[in-house]
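name: query_chain
kind: protein
chains: 1
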Amino acid sequence: MPPTHEGVFLIADITGYTQYLTDSELAHAQETLTALLELLVENTRPPLVISRLAGDAVISYAFRERFLQGQTFLEKIEETYVLFRQAIDRLVLNNTCRCQACANIGQLDLKFFIHYGAFGIQRIADHDELVGADVVLLHRLLKNTVKEKIGHGAYALFTRAAVDHLALGDLVAEMAPHVETIEQLGEVETWIQDMHPVWEARREAVAVRFPDGRIRGRYEAEVAMPPERLWDYLIQPAYRNTLIGSDRMLIAGRRAGRIAPGSVFQCYHGDMLVPQTILAWRPFEHMILQELFPMAPKVTWLSEYRLEPIDGGTRFTWTYGEPSGPLWGRLLLKILMPVFSRISRRLFTAFVRQVEEAERAAGAEPGAASAVSPEQIRAAAADGLRPAGDP
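structure:
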């Protein structure tokens, strides 16, 4: 009997798959599905661990002790969906083949199913098989009435257990509540997030860039964790206090429960408040803040935190710019800048050390599955092309 764990389960399921196979030539269909599965596998990063591939789906899990904050996880789901849709668009735009498989790529989409509960892990062949009643519940939710009742073809479904454990709270306020009735299991309370508005918002978003010509200083480090993990630390007050050198920190101006452009990290240094207003917010990539110089309240400067994936972790860069505002305030800041620069470098180094120590203290995840190989991805896509009942 395998030991019992608690954690989050995630199924990323390609939708429109069955109809796509019905109408498509199998050779080109396998190429397309292999490419899309590769994308999903690549974006299933720690603390998520891939359990197995199921033809048109990637099944993963994470242990409760080391999981992400609710907003970080929600934005990871959204980021994966955006990357999937970008891949679909590229496949359509770059297509010169006239076969049905290539012509039908645009009908593919993506759904996510998220639940929290107890599970066991059994090693079967080359993958970890999740077992338990909660695992069964999530798989049963794959067949549902969401599209008929709500009309969303691409969505993320969160069960009540997932919402409660991830402390999503106000974050589900803009989602559609939905109850699914499952035979022998009864009613399951869920929330449905339509993913199409997420894609439309990203397509229409105007990129905000740090003004390269006004860079005052830059610190850089390579951190041994994926961008999602580092981002999750970067937005937590307990860790930002180390990075900023503040005594305590509050977050004001959330939008529908989220940290977003316009939100403010309110940093307290004793009784002195130093606000940092978010101007640009691109999860797992970068954020740009406008910071206030407390000794000259009308003087501000921009800071950018940028995360870039590299082999073995993330390149983390903190860039700050030239001050703006009244001349006397800018001159005062420039006089003090050498001192501030030394302090900032020390705080930056301390933050990196703190988050890496936090990761080491958490320890390796028990039962973590091996990396999924290209051969396994191709085999999963091929299995998915076989009609039901074929050996």
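note: The mean pLDDT is 87.
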